[in-house]
Amino acid sequence: MKRLSFIALLLLLPLSSPLWAQADSLPDGLGTDIRTPEGLRKLIERKDPRFVIVDVRSPAEYAAGHIPTAINIPGGISADVKAPPSKDKYLVLYCHGGMKSPAAGEKMRADGYKHVLVWGGIVNWPYARDVSSK
Questions:
Q1: What total of structural domains would you count in the chain?
Q2: CA angle 121-127-77, nearest 5°?
């Protein structure tokens, strides 16, 4: 039983650490606010140019509906994007259910992005979604 609990903890740790590791370093104390859908919506409404919302799902999933103002960087691989965000921006990543965005965040950190916050999944977004004609 102890072994099973230890294995479960090891599996969950990578999913939670990227969010908490960067949340305290966000400007203006936004680390606490941004973790909720309401906080992210307020950030979007503020139109703070320091932040970029990043959808790491496939282009088809992004086109079907994404969080307003989000850009699409599938899998977190910015080399495949025509105009990737500046490396000094604060990136807020999300995927569908929150399972793929941590790995995408690690890829973006390895690519030189210093401020990466893994928000979770769009399934937690209760507000209207934008759609693309792509």
A1: 1
A2: 35
134 in a structural domain: no
State pLDDT tens for residues 90-102: 999 999 999 999 9
User: How far is Cα 29 from Cα 34, in angstroms, rounded to an integer?
Assistant: 9
Tokens of 59: 């282009």
pLDDT in tens, 51-84: 999 999 999 999 999 999 999 999 999 888 899 9
Catalytic residues: 95
CATH of residue 53's domain is 3.40.250.10
- Domain span at residue 77 reads 2-124
